[in-house]
Amino acid sequence: MLIPLGHEKRSVRRLPWVTFAIMGLCVVVFLLTIPGENRYEQEANERLEELFRYFVEHPYLEMGPRFQELFVDQVGEKEAAALTEVIKEMGGPPPESERLLREEQEHFDRLVGEFFEVYGDSPLHRWGLVPASFRLPALISHQFLHAGWMHLLGNLFILFLAGPFIEDVWGRPLFGGFYLMAGAFAGIMFAVRYPGFEGPLIGASGAIAGVMGAFLVRYWHTKIKFFYWFFFFFMGTFEAAAWIMLPLWFLKELFFAQAMDVMVPGGGGGGVAFWAHVWGFGFGVVVAFAVSYFRVEQRLIHPTIESKITLVENTGVEQAMELAATGNLRGGVEALGKELRQRPENVDAAMAMWSLCLRQGEVNPAVPHMVRVLRKAARDGDDEFVLAHWEEVLRACEDLKIPAALGLGIAEVHEAAHRDLVALDTLELARRSVDGSTPVGVLLRMARMAIALRASEAGSMIEAALAHPEIPAEARAELEAARAEFQGSEGEHGTEAEEAALPDPETADLPSPVRVHTIQVMQAIPRAIDGENLEIEVKGAPRRMDLGQVQSIGVGGVSREGQRPVVVVDLLLDSPWGEREALRTVRLTSDSFDPRHLVGGEDAANAFRIFLDHLLKISEAVPLPDPDAARGRPFRSFATLEDYHREVLGVGE
């Protein structure tokens, strides 16, 4: 026997009122229905006993489909067939009078009808989901009914373990709607599986299975603590990650669902709605993946609840923030430092200290604490936290140093979220921490990511992995082939990584203060403007670009031999006036998209100018080569792409 005791998640940002309300409603409904259900059950049992006794005394009577189904449900299909034969052999012969036989059959049918009338009038039948007499309101009402204290408490305990944490990250409205939909979906699929079943489906287990499925996706790496007890001799506790235990639970439910269908065909799972559990869990997994894919938490939920209080008592944080509110930032930072020395795991304190240090303009005291909480978030699989806070730390700290494995893990999170530019910078940061103790697995993953993202330092990462004595033979062959391909592509001018040679600074005719750089280009197609973000497509894959990252926007018309001229739009992530050697840019070209699909209108040229104006307003970037030309009023023309690079971006060819 395995019983979950809890998991390593300890706090939420707000009281989970929806979860508590569901639990409270289940208890109230149970207290209101169980007395009446007990009375109906007692009366139904008496009528059932009378019905079976009459049948045993008159085994020659026709059962009828309802009684036959009830008989099978009570004792099982094979047992019912065998018992019927025994009763018929032991019973007496039918009466010779047809009238008497007809009266006995009518009396028996009346007993069957009276039993089902009482049976169907119980609270569980009236408000439960009965597939044979399907009613839409029952899709919701059945979720709050329970057959006994163990049924109720077992469900509420599992809901308490998982519900508050999904409610915390999804918000109350989404979680409440999701919970009811998961239970309704599980009920619908149960009814589809057993369309003729006359028993009621009751209980919150289908909806709670949905919450478990969401918990699996959202807290993939979270460790769950279990109590085990086998044969009265072996007992204790152990911990295992959610990604191990929850799929095992799902497979167990699926196995029993199929097994009960074999043993009790059409019997609704033999008293346990295994199929409702299976479909509820699957519903939760699908919805959680959708929430993650569309970044619902980051875009819609977190901004509205970040400022809410947590359940954790943070007296030290409150006192520090009070000091900061009076203007004593240094005192607030010192108080938070003391709090973090006593409670290093206090995420709120680390976040508050980071905020105050940013306001002071000196982030170094807060960096170790932020790195620690980011490491824990990465280890726990809390990708949303990493995505929300890492880039700010990365950009604010010039001499930031983190372990290679941690940097790689954070880079992988950003790559998975299609934030390739942050992933590249983080990967480069991780590369600087590589030493002789770096595991071969980390080196191999770094090299593969660098190749996939076309990182400027991909060559050195490949060499570092190949130099490790424990690299597997197949991985060595893979990297050697990639190294040859990568080296072969260096120096070529393409749409993904376009690198220009450095000219002689003394002869370069560049407008001051533009410096001479190389350029790394990611070719993209714009698909939509969403608030401060630009939805783009890169090599067929959707990406999401924060326009707040854009430092400058370069625009120019470029002539092409044998083709129509094209307008090049560069969203520069590095300022041409900065010290960075390689300018990173996301490049859009006028021949790859229709601006009318982005901003509307009938005239494509005018729509293109409106699109450029939107980009400049949202990003507040520096327009190049000048404000009018960057808005197409008019575009400045260049004979070649190299001329545009040199004159607008300061890149020599």
Overview of this structure, please?
This protein is α/β, with parallel strands linked by helices. It folds into four domains: 2-292, Rhomboid-like fold, CATH 1.20.1540.10; 312-400, Alpha Horseshoe (Serine Threonine Protein Phosphatase 5, Tetratricopeptide repeat); 404-413 and 422-489; 518-649, no CATH class. The chain has 26 helices and twelve strands. It has helices at 17-57, 65-75, 77-90, 98-120, 123-127, 138-141, 149-170, 172-193, 205-218, 242-263, 274-293, 296-305, 315-325, 329-342, 347-360, 367-380, 383-396, 404-416, 420-431, 440-453, 458-467, 473-489, 596-599, 604-619, 627-630, 641-649; strands spanning 2-7, 223-230, 234-241, 518-523, 525-530, 533-538, 541-546, 552-560, 563-572, 582-589, 622-624, 637-638. Strands 4, 8, 9, 10, 11 and 12 form a six-stranded mixed sheet that branches. A three-stranded antiparallel sheet has the order 1-2-3. The chain has a three-stranded antiparallel sheet with strand order 5-6-7, with no helix packed on it. Strand 8 (552-560) and strand 9 form a beta hairpin. Helix 2 (65-75) packs across helix 3 and helix 8 packs across helix 11. The longest helix has 41 residues, at 17-57. It starts with a strand and ends with a helix. 36% of the residues are buried. Residues 307-312 and 489-514 have low confidence and may be disordered.
